[in-house]
Amino acid sequence: MNQQLKERLEELAENPVEWDCNLAPFTSFGIGGPADAIVQVESPDELGSLLEFFAEHGLAWRFIGKGTNILVSDSGFSGVILLFGKALSSIALLEESGTDLIHVRVGAGCSLARLLNWCVTGGYSGLEFSAGIPGSLGGAVVMNAGAWGGEMSDIIDSLCVLSQKSGIEYLDRDELDFCYRVWKNQGNANSKRLVLSADICLKHGQKTEIQQKCMGYLLQRKEKQPKIDKNAGSFFKNPKGDSAGRLIEASGLKGTRYGGAMVSPVHANFLVNTGEATANDVFKLMDIVTTRVEKDSGVQLLPEVHFL
Ligand SMILES: Cc1cc2nc3c(=O)[nH]c(=O)nc-3n(C[C@H](O)[C@H](O)[C@H](O)COP(=O)(O)OP(=O)(O)OC[C@H]3O[C@@H](n4cnc5c(N)ncnc54)[C@H](O)[C@@H]3O)c2cc1C
After folding, report:
1. How high is the pLDDT of residue 51?
2. 146 pocket-lining for ligand 1 (C-beta < 6 Å)
3. How many angstroms is it from 222 CA to the middle of ligand 1?
4. Whose C-alpha lies nearest to ligand 1, atom 36?
């Protein structure tokens, strides 16, 4: 990016731009090279202006939520990384309709943990399945994050989104196409939709029951998932009717290492960074796992983690 464009980017961004910044600290894997610039966005208007500016000058950009489902390459990203700041993380009760349903508007930058805590405090039920899923509301929508038989698409009423091509749009539930760990009509290239906020529908519930359910899920996670090593959660999607973890374990791959990357001995579908792993180590390990599982069981594992 030339000096003139750098100055223009600094004018458009509300927060100071971070130049040549390492992306590893922005991901739960703790892996990744530098990006040319990182901008923490605070409003839809600012985001709109930035996307226009990028389109006008052919600048590459990507979005990271809380970085808990992303593997960033060792060479990093040649372009601008956008993140959401605090102003896009609000939680607002929309209405209490007189029924047992309640509707809530949540900013995409809000962490799932903060939202769940808010639900527990208010006695609102519906999001318990997310207990222990890290990440932002926006990331959870895009990934259709889920656990224990629940997923984000169960509770989404509508989305407010923004794209380079169409600006701000409001999409109702029936316009949204979700399936297992994918929001299918997010779009791509200049029609890629960024989630600004989601309206979700919850139910009134017993505070103690909601709390107990969450605690139960958290406890099970504690027992089944690696505690120390950095990771991005389940690395592969579960094939229909089976579990990626079971297939990897059946191939005897628990504990297999490549460089600093390892198949977790605790949960085989977690590829972990034992300390100094590079993205290349993780890619190589991913190859070892997919090749071996396909040879042993004929199943082709597909990554759930997004690559940047
Ligand atoms: C220990 C651990 C446990 C986990 N357990 C689960 C689990 O049980 N179930 C599950 O489903 N997932 C799980 N995950 C994965 C991850 O936490 C979820 O997918 C989470 O919802 C990702 O949110 P994020 O903000 O971190 O997204 P990121 O990792 O930052 O981004 C993921 C993708 O979403 C895009 N994105 C993020 N925010 C937006 C936005 N506002 N608008 C448009 N695009 C956006 C990014 O560009 C990227 O393509 C786990 C991860 C970890 C580390």
Report:
1. 96
2. yes
3. 19
4. 139
Q: Minimal CA–CA distance to 139: which of 218, 199, 195?
A: 195
pLDDT digits (tens, 9 = 90+) for 128-168: 999 999 999 999 999 999 999 999 999 999 999 999 999 99
> What's the pTM?
0.95
CATH of domain 230-302: 3.90.78.10
Cα maximum dimension of the chain = 58
**Is 41 a pocket residue for ligand 1 (Cβ < 6 Å)?**
no
User: Is-same-fold flag (89-224; 230-302)?
Assistant: no
- The secondary structure of residue 131, as a DSSP letter, is T
Domain parsing of the chain, residue ranges: 3-86, 89-224, 230-302
261: left (phi over 0), alpha (psi -120 to 50) or beta: beta
54-104 tens-digit pLDDT: 999 999 999 999 999 999 999 999 999 999 999 999 999 997 667 789 999
- Taking alpha carbons only, the member of 75, 96, 86 closest to residue 41 is 86
Structure tokens, 198: 């989601």
What whole-number distance in Å separates Cα of residue 84 and Cα of residue 33? 20
Which residue, 141, 168, 139, is CA-closest to 157? 141
Both structure tokens of 75: 């060479």
pLDDT of residue 225: 87
Tokens, residue 44: 């839809």
Calculate how far, in angstroms, residue 3's C-alpha sits from the geometric centre of ligand 1: 34
| 89-224: in CATH 3.30.465.10 | yes
For ligand 1, whether the C-beta of 256 sits within 6 Å is no
Q: How far is the CA of 132 from the centre of ligand 1 (A)?
A: 12
Residue 209 is among the residues annotated as catalytic for this protein: no
Write down the H helix ranges in 128-276: 137-143, 207-224, 244-250
Active-site position among 89, 111, 136, 234: 234
Task: State the fold for domain 3-86.
Answer: 3.30.43
